[in-house]
Write a structure and sequence with these properties.
The chain has 385 residues and is mainly α. The protein is built from 17 helices and four strands.
Length: 385
């Protein structure tokens, strides 16, 4: 790609994560570069030394049988060994490296038996507090009554979520943590456990701050903070609120409830049937197998028969463990909002394929077609597939 875009001389280094395939790619390139250096040919100044350097047999009596060698072809061959080209200097992603320092390297301290006992005991109690709160709305309400907040459930994909969970426990304080543990019938945290967690937060805080700075400069930052994109994602059964930080979920949930209510009001105003948002006759097509029909969930029950509020329906949807699109049939108002929010294609690939088809049709010998004829030919070409 560097060669194709003509930027090879402009790239000083390439930044990737520390995955094994990335590391190997650059190692192969370095090995090839070392072989190239061993094969470098020094070009002498006179013709006699040149022939000796290139091992060309010299015979004054028979000049016609000499082998003609292009020295520049020989030198350029050293730039490519067995089809492997050299690459710019490899740099590991700093954010990824810090994540490994925090999640993997720091665990090496568990080799100390005393530290291991303190770490495992304290962290197990933190995880035990987080699990029931994330699984049971009833227990979550109990914790909120005691603490005024809730405990954050760590995820395996981000080390910083482990830190946030510990930080929240420390912020709540030992006495309230004990009351929560009594309420959910768990072993109580000791003073020694809390002291360990306080020290853990103090030591790991600089790493978290550095990671936040590094990952704050992202090309998707605007997308991740856009209200419409957030609503679209939350309404998808596969995501819901799971991808959001714990402290942002309540506000986003309220926003989603308002959006679903807005769509429900629009449906009532236009007298649309649930599941048919636009109120228009949907085009018919050949029947699909159940697994192939992405929109089979649109045959929905009458929302009025459910007798539940929009807020409760959204809450039930978010608490449901179902992740398939088919699960939306149980939540008609959410399904209508999902249809509107997720109608836009997230990729331009379909448009690019259309451009390719149009480019093949609009050849130099067919450039006198009218716009209408061109549209019809492109339409027929796409439909013929």
């Amino acid at each position: 790609m560097l060669n194709e875009f003509g930027i090879r001389s402009k790239v000083l280094n390439i930044v990737t994560d520390n995955a094994a395939n990335m590391t190997k790619a650059f190692k192969v390139a370095i090995d090839a570069s070392e072989v190239n250096e061993e094969r470098t040919v020094t070009v002498p100044d006179n013709d006699t030394d040149l022939e000796e350097a290139l091992s060309i047999p010299h015979d004054d009596d028979d000049d016609d049988e000499r082998e003609v060698v292009n020295v520049f072809d020989g030198l350029s061959a050293a730039d490519d060994v067995d089809g492997v080209e050299t690459l710019p200097l490899h740099k590991a992603c700093s954010n990824h490296t810090l994540n490994l320092v925090a999640s993997s390297d720091s665990l090496n301290t568990r080799a100390d038996k005393a530290y291991k006992r303190s770490y495992d005991r304290a962290m197990a109690k933190v995880q035990a507090l987080c699990n029931p709160v994330s699984r049971s709305p009833k227990l979550n309400d109990i914790v909120e009554e005691i603490t005024g907040t809730t405990f954050m459930n760590p995820t395996s994909t981000r080390w910083s979520s482990d830190f946030s969970a510990v930080e929240r426990v420390v912020a709540v304080g030992l006495q309230k943590v004990k009351r929560c543990q009594i309420a959910v019938k768990q072993e109580q945290m000791t003073d020694a456990d809390m002291q360990f967690l306080v020290a853990y937060v103090k030591v790991m805080k600089p790493i978290v701050l550095a990671m936040n700075v590094l990952q704050g400069d992202r090309r998707f930052q605007a997308v991740l903070s856009d209200k419409e994109h957030l609503i679209t994602s939350v309404l998808h059964p596969n995501f819901k609120l799971h991808f959001l930080p714990e402290d942002a979920r309540l506000n986003i949930k309220c926003t989603v409830v308002g959006y679903v209510q807005q769509i429900a009001d629009e449906i009532c105003d236009t007298d649309c049937h649930p599941g048919d948002y636009a109120g228009q006759q949907m085009p018919t097509a050949a029947p699909l197998d159940k697994e192939e029909d992405l929109y089979s969930f649109m045959t929905l029950p009458d929302h009025a028969a459910r007798g539940t509020s929009i807020s409760k329906e959204v809450e039930e949807f978010l608490q449901s463990k179902a992740r398939g699109i088919q699960s939306l049939k149980d939540y008609p108002s959410v399904a209508n909002a999902f249809v509107k929010a997720n109608s836009t294609l997230p990729s331009s690939a379909a448009v690019e394929r259309l451009f390719s088809t149009a480019g093949l049709i609009l050849s130099p010998r067919r450039c006198r077609m009218t716009d209408q004829l061109f549209d019809r030919v492109v339409f027929l070409k796409c439909r013929s597939r």
